[in-house]
Design brief:
The protein is 90% helix and 0% strand. By secondary structure, the chain is mainly alpha-helical. The longest helix is centred in the middle third of the chain and has 118 residues, at 10-127. The relative contact order is 0.03.
């Protein structure tokens, strides 16, 4: 058996390889451009996320500060309310004592009026001659 001989033009094969190589390099170049574009977009998104995170952290810090101020204000208001209630109880007790004193004085008013009236009538009766 004889081996068939294939004649190949190496120049043609080299041209085809170079053409394929150019096509592959062009494709790689396009992929690199797309990759750079994607990397830029991803980098921009990461930057936006970092800015958003910084804003959220600032808002959280402000919210925490406002919450602490609210707690302190509420505590102060509650303490003032307790003090006002104590003062109100003291005033109520004083008022109750004063009313009790007035009731005692009121109960003395009638006997005093009767005694004074009796004394005046006695004086008037002794000064008027009857007959």
């Amino acid at each position: 058996m004889t081996n068939p001989t294939i004649e190949i033009d190496l120049g043609e094969i080299l041209k085809e390889i170079k053409f394929d190589q150019k096509a592959i390099l062009n494709e790689i170049s396009e992929i690199k451009k797309e990759n750079k574009s994607d990397q830029k977009a991803i980098s921009d998104e990461i930057s936006n996320l970092r800015v958003g995170q910084a804003r959220l952290e600032e808002k959280f810090t402000n919210l925490s500060k406002d919450h602490n101020e609210f707690k302190e204000s509420t505590r102060t208001n509650f303490d003032e309310l307790k003090e006002s209630i104590k003062e109100l109880k003291t005033a109520q007790e004083t008022l109750a004592a004063d009313v009790a004193d007035l009731k005692g004085a009121k109960s003395l008013i009638i006997p005093i009026v009767v005694a004074v009236t009796t004394a005046i009538l006695t004086l008037v009766g002794r000064t008027i001659p009857f007959g």
